[in-house]
Design goal:
Elements lengths: L21 H32 L2 H28 L2 H24 L5 H28 L6 H30 L1 H18 L28 H10 L1 H16 L3 H10 L6 H22 L7 H19 L4 H28 L6 H57 L5 E4 L4 E5 L6
Antiparallel strand pairs: 1-2
């Protein structure tokens, strides 16, 4: 007589479960240092451009030059991440970014940095980032089991927010006491710190292992090409749906720094202090959403779509807010929903493709995301010119919810009905045939 087996322990849903692994803890510390250094540099970079040129347009130009490589060659960077050893790729790219930061610091300290040099350095930074971004994103996921990837992404989002706050605060102190070059020098040190940590990272048991694709190990006919990544992305309905949901949300929502700023200072008759309060609530909501998103175990595109549609409806109500108090009460859940949706979408994007294609899929996503980030604000600005701040929020929110709802209905209609198989010669109906699931 066999004894009854003890019930299995329920899987952990703690948002911090990824930090159970030693390498993930070190990776989080390294990312915090790197994010703090990056935000130190970004905080002073626009001021530096204004100091050199005296032109606000030049500031936008420097940002566009740095973003342009992501639009043009992200797919090549993703292919490199799939082809080369992950840890080596991330370490080398971090070291190169550190070298660029040190070079900029020296030029600033010697008063030799002109606009041409700054644009060249920005472009080189953008090129290296097309490899560094997917390499570092996937390296973090390689350290934990698949079910803990949402936690790793959520922890990463929290680390990003914390690094942003600390970096912005340290930038003022560094520039005030040591000068502008100090921010670039500190950023260079942060990159070198990350590069020095990477060789000691070890994946936990159950983590998906990534191996560089050597020619002798490939299956016949399999090639590590950009076309393979593009083909996988475009033939994968859930990734295309994720791109559609994220795209419409990015264009007609999410740009709250623009829409809410106009709403607060215009129809709601608030000032800079009022918008500062709204921005703080948005940041708090983002942090809460990252914690909630980290509790997810198996996010889906359906969840991302439902959250994005809910965010669109909240945006509609926010656009109709009669007072600043009502708006602030709505801003918190808007930010929470957006942050959870981002975490879930990132988890789907980074775990759905097979391991040997993930770099190229992230490369495709980088190019698509750059289109949204460059085209979204002008499109939203035009909508605000035509409909005002309230009209833009209401119209944008309705478009988001309607598009996602329509897509869901069309998807349900496309799901084939089960086909009944007849058994024997009597024509009696048998069991339904298996049908594909979306």
């Amino acid at each position: 007589m066999s004894s009854a087996s003890s019930p299995a322990q329920p899987a952990s849903r703690s948002p911090w479960r990824a930090l159970r692994y030693r390498s993930m803890r070190w990776w989080s510390v390294a990312n915090f240092v790197s994010n703090a250094g990056t935000w130190m540099q970004l905080t002073v970079q626009n001021l530096l451009v204004l100091q050199i040129t005296g032109s606000a347009a030049a500031t936008g130009l420097s940002m566009s030059v740095q973003a342009a490589p992501a639009l043009l060659i992200s797919v090549l960077g993703g292919a490199a991440v799939d082809r080369w050893p992950r840890k080596l790729t991330a370490a080398v790219s971090q070291a190169l970014l550190g070298l660029i930061a040190f070079t900029t610091a020296v030029l600033v300290a010697l008063d030799r940095l002109d606009m041409t040099s700054l644009l060249v350095l920005a472009a080189v930074t953008g090129v290296v980032a097309t490899v560094d971004n997917p390499a570092c994103a996937l390296l973090g996921n390689d350290l934990v089991p698949a079910e803990d990837v949402p936690s790793a992404i959520g922890v990463g989002a929290l680390v990003h927010q914390a690094g942003r706050l600390v970096g912005a605060a340290l930038a003022g102190v560094a520039v005030g006491f040591l000068g502008t070059a100090a921010a670039y020098f500190a950023n260079g040190l942060s990159f070198l710190f990350v590069a020095s940590v990477i060789p000691f990272l070890r994946p936990a048991a159950g983590a998906v292992r990534h191996e560089a694709a050597r020619p002798e190990r490939r299956a016949p006919g399999a090639e590590m090409t950009v076309r393979e990544g593009l083909a996988f992305f475009t033939r994968r309905p859930r990734l295309m749906a994720l791109a559609g949901v994220t795209g419409i949300s990015a264009v007609f929502g999410r740009n709250y720094g623009l829409t809410l700023a106009v709403l607060v200072t215009g129809p709601l008759a608030g000032g800079a202090g009022s918008f500062g309060t709204v921005s703080t609530v948005l940041a708090v909501g983002g942090i809460l959403g990252a914690v909630l998103g980290a509790r997810l175990r198996r996010p889906s595109v359906r969840l991302v779509g439902a959250l994005a549609a809910a965010g669109g409806l909240l945006q509609v109500v926010a656009g109709l807010s009669p007072s600043l108090v009502v708006l602030i009460a709505l801003v918190l859940p808007m930010a929470v929903v957006e942050s959870v949706s981002d975490t879930a979408g990132t988890a789907v994007l980074q775990t759905d493709p097979p391991a040997h294609l993930r770099g190229r899929v992230l490369g495709v996503w980088g190019s698509i995301g750059t289109v949204w980030s460059l085209g979204g604000p002008p499109a939203l600005g035009l909508l605000m010119e035509l409909a005002g701040a309230r009209g833009a929020l209401v119209t944008g929110g309705l478009l988001i919810a309607a598009a996602i709802g329509t897509g869901h209905l069309l998807h349900r209609r496309r799901v084939p009905a089960p086909v009944l198989l007849r058994t024997g010669e009597t024509g009696a109906p048998g069991r339904p045939a298996l049908s594909t699931a979306a």
